[in-house]
Amino acid sequence: MMKRTIGYGRCVLFLLLAAVFLLTACQTKEKQQVSLDTNSQTLKIKGVAYDISNKEVSEDAIQKLAYRFKAYLVLDSDNKLRQAKSIRAVMDYAKEQLDDKKATSSTPLLFIGNVYQTTDGLAVSIKDSYYKLEKTSAKSSDKLDLTALIKSSDSESRDVKLSSTNARKLTIGNQDYHISDILMSEDNLGSYVSTLSESVTFETKTGKILDKSELTKLTDASAADRTSWDYGDIYHTKENADDLVVAINNDYHLLQKEN
């Protein structure tokens, strides 16, 4: 009986390890399905090269998410595109290479997002729009110029600032917002707006942001009334282009306008 129990336990352990391995392999494969070639400014999807055309696709034509993808682009001193997988990596690069630019969350960036199935093929999310993907052709003349697009973002980008005192308040452009407790699913995310690269700890009830001196005085009892937030990307929602959400600790909080 003991040998049979041990054998059964080993079998279950083997099956669990196999399941974890297969899940990891599938996730890795999914991440590798889409890549961006900054030299040719083309997207490769499952080994097939696509040009990003300058033909915009209406939001009504977007049917469903086809492939997850995220890339941040910035221009180097030679006007060549550079990409990174996180906003922090772009900021680090900007500090090192772009001495003439101030490396902040408002540094001009170009965000390329997910690939979507449309009523007429595929489209990719760039800034506040969707652009049609077409299989690469030497005769293509309507290709989107990503370099020109990122240069134009200098005048179009909206500054995003977190309140210096309240963790639940932020400003986008000239509009103040309250960060609500209403959560949106990732499937409801629309086009990318900007990124808020901040991390704070605050009083849960009041939203008051704690400074370094206050953090060092935290006790086990007071820590229970504290919350830490890591802020990230800001998006429009698919249901309403006027609605915005902000990523916080891997959740998406709906932003509510303040008068």
UniProtKB/TrEMBL annotation:
Record's signal peptide: 1-25
Short name of any one Pfam family annotated for the protein: Spa1_C
Residue ranges of coiled coil: none
Keywords (A to Z) from UniProt: Signal
InterPro entries in the cross-refs: Spa1_C
Residue ranges annotated for the Lantibiotic immunity protein Spa1 C-terminal domain, each copy included: 163-253
UniProt xrefs under NCBIfam families: NisI_immun_dup
Protein name as it appears in the record: Nisin immunity protein
Classification lineage: Bacteria, Bacillati, Bacillota, Bacilli, Lactobacillales
